[in-house]
Amino acid sequence: MAAGEQGQVSPLTRAGEALVVHRVGAPDFLVTVERADEAAAVLNTLDSRVG
């Protein structure tokens, strides 16, 4: 686990690209993930449909 800003904790499962998820009313969430750019695109698409 890695300490983030303001005491946040995030799981780091491997070295490499990471994705930071900015959440409303909750701390940001950072996780290492393959193809972070594709994962970000999926989350952005979902956000645009829901938000």
Account of the 3D structure:
Strand 1 (2-3) and strand 2 (9-10) form a beta hairpin. This protein starts with a strand and ends with a helix. It is of the alpha+beta class and 51 residues long. 0% of the residues are buried. The longest helix has 15 residues, at 36-50. It has a two-stranded antiparallel sheet. Helices cover 29% and strands 24% of the residues. The mean pLDDT is 81. It has one helix at 36-50; strands at 2-3, 9-10, 18-21, 29-32. The protein has one domain. The chain contains one helix and four strands, in the order ββββα.
Indicate the topology.
Blueprint: E1 2-3, E2 9-10, E3 18-21, E4 29-32, H1 36-50
Antiparallel strand pairs: 1-2, 3-4
**Helix count?**
1
Q: How would you spell out the order of helices and strands? A: EEEEH
Gyration radius from CA atoms, angstroms: 12 Å
* Largest beta sheet: strand ordering: 1-2
User: What's the structural domain tally?
Assistant: 1
Structural class: alpha+beta
Uncertain runs with pLDDT below 50, 5 residues or more?
A: none
- End-to-end CA span: 30 Å
Determine the strand fraction and express it as a percent band: 15-25%
Number of strands: 4
* Helical content class: 25-40%
What is the structure about, briefly put?
With 51 residues, this protein is an alpha+beta fold.
Give the tags.
flat, 51 residues, 24% strand, alpha+beta, two-stranded antiparallel sheet, 1 helix, 4 strands
